[in-house]
Amino acid sequence: MALPLLNQILVFLIDMGGVLLGVIVLLHNRKERVNQLFAIAVVLMLVWVNFAYFARVIGSSNPELALRFLHVAWFVTPAFFVFLYFLAIHLAGLPQKYPVLNTAVGALGAGTAYVTGFTDLVVKDIGFIGEAVRIVYGQGMFGFLAVITVFVGVTLFLVYHGYHHLGSAEKQSLQYVLIGLTIFYTANLIFNIILPVFLGIVRWYWLGDYSTIAVLGFTSLAIVKRDLFGIRVVLTALLVIFIGFLFAIDIFAFTETSLVKLAKAFVLMIFLYLGTLLVKSVHREIMYREQLQEAYKKLEELDKTKSEFVSIASHQLRTPLSAMKGYISMILEGSYGTLETKQKKPLESISESNERLIRLVNDLLNVSRIESGKIEMKWEQGSVKEIIKSVVEELAIKTKEKNVEVVFEESESSLPLIRIDKEKIRNVVLNIVDNAIRYTPHGKIVLNVKGQMSNVKIRTLLISVKDTGEGMTQEEIGKLFQTFSRGGAGMKFSTEGAGLGLYIAKKFVEMHRGRIWAESAGKGQGSTFYVELPVKQEI
Asked: Which distant-in-sequence residues (6+ apart) come within 8 Å of 86 by Cβ?
């Protein structure tokens, strides 16, 4: 491949790669100082490389303009080194540690930029060795080299100094920076100084300029690693660069007519624009995902904290409440003397309130155990019929007070014993029936349990609790088994309860690999709750 063609391709790749790297890093966090410094360094690199390239291209045809281009390239060279210095110390975590040194570096860089760009002390003229452009250096060349050496030495020293005070992730980032700086400084020393200045070999001069992409590539990787940047963005950018590279080869190597070249170049520009939008879109998606993941982690932590608090609070509350229950029962039974009628009524109210508190604490404790996965199951063979009977008996006094009839329509056919946690299934039935009593101002509540047949065998037991209460809308049914959910009827009648019972019932049923649901024809039509439990083992 001819050197002019290779030059064109390399400049194109540097331009495209530099712009993409700058955009990617800046878009990642445009307010971060490191990212801003990197973007400025990219701009300086592109000016340096392109103006030096055009100076070599037009050197033979327009030496005066080529010299001006060289002055621009050499003007930004010390500025590029200065920004590399500040970029490196920011990555090393040393931006404020050496304010006097930082000021001196900035001032020295500005002075050197002026000398190289606006005088002939460094770049005096251009000459030719064959077709290759040869820079004629002035008396200030060695001073320039001394300044650059100072920049390089101070930068490497501070990077090395900061390296030992950083964590493993930050150290890895600085390692990438050091690799890039080493390649960059070595290439410039060999191709831009030793070969042309001391040996007069200018054929490979351009390789020194093009090594700028190495330091920017590795520095962008350092920023990526430090900020945990998405690899998908980098891969997308690389894909765009690769396709653009193929485009460039086709334009410069295989296209003959100028009109076709212009058309393909136009298509290439459109592709690069769309590629940049693609990279930006991928970056935005990754940022949104990272934000969602971070928010999810915080929610998990808050939920864990909440569960722990509820568990601790429930344990702490249950002990004194149980003690209160015992003492109140003893007082009502006359263990501490005979009570007058007017004394019993407030004590009975206190006892009821205490019972409600105990139920609430137990519900909160159950919710905490369920959400933390610490609920224990005591599996044994049990009769669902007997559990329902015991619940009806327990609630007999309450149903009498509310003037609500509770009927258990016991099936004549025998039902199998099933493997269950008796206490939890009892809790399920108790919660459903208790709900029905509270939300039924008058009327009847009918309980039933029957076997569901399949292939001549009972596969599931279906428990139903039908009431003549206020009924529910479909919206209320949809929220019924959520935590702290209470139906409209509950609010209307100011019934007691925190809305945890049905949530707990649902979780307990699911632990038995069963299902629970509710049906209602609407307001004023009553409701029916169903619990389906699999027959896991028959006796």
From this structure: 37, 95, 102, 105
Residue ranges covered by each domain of the chain: 3-229, 307-372, 380-534
Q: Position 55: which residue type?
A: A
CA dihedral 8, 10, 14, 20 (to 10 degrees): 90
- CA 8, distance to chain mean position in Å, is 42
CB 457 within 8 A of CB 477: no
CATH level 3 topology of 3-229: Rhopdopsin 7-helix transmembrane proteins (1.20.1070)
Return d(Cα 400, Cα 437) in angstroms, integer.
10
Task: Dihedral sign for Cα 298, 303, 308, 312, please.
Answer: positive
Alpha carbon distance 365, 373 (integer Å)? 12
For residue range 46-91, what is the model confidence (pLDDT) as tens digits? 887 778 777 777 766 777 787 888 888 888 888 877 877 787 777 6
User: How far is it, in rounded angstroms, from Cα 136 to Cα 156?
Assistant: 30
* Residue indicated by tokens 């569960």: 307
The closest alpha carbon to 434, from 354, 505, 377, 380, belongs to 505
Angstrom CA distances, 418 to 289, 382, 421, 456, 509, stand at 46, 6, 10, 17, 14
| Domain at 380-534, CATH homologous superfamily | Histidine kinase-like ATPase, C-terminal domain (3.30.565.10)
Q: What tokens were used for 88?
A: 């490196």
Bridge-based pairing of strands 380-382 and 418-420 is: antiparallel
At which residue do the structure tokens 């369920």 appear? 370
Q: Measured between alpha carbons, how far is 346 from 332 in angstroms, rounded to an integer?
A: 11
Whether residue 177 contacts residue 91, with contact meaning beta carbons closer than 8 Å, is answered with yes
Rounded Cα distance, 404 and 444, in Å: 6
SS3 label, residue 167: coil
Using an 8 Å Cβ cutoff, are 426 and 391 in contact?
yes
Residue 419 bridge partners (DSSP): 381
- 538 with 464: CB under 8 angstroms? no
Q: In this model, does residue 306 exceed pLDDT 70?
A: no
* pLDDT exceeds 50 at position 441: yes
380-534 shares the fold of 3-229: no
Angle between helices 231-249 and 3-28 (to 10 degrees): 160
Residue 98 carries which DSSP code? Answer: -
Contact 383, 417 (CB under 8 A): yes
For 385, the token pair is: 């019929």
Q: In the 3-class helix/strand/coil scheme, how is 18-49 assigned residue by residue?
A: HHHHHHHHHHHCCCCHHHHHHHHHHHHHHHHH
Q: Is 192 within 8 Å of 208 (Cβ atoms)?
A: yes
* Most confident by average pLDDT, 155-159, 174-178, 422-426: 422-426
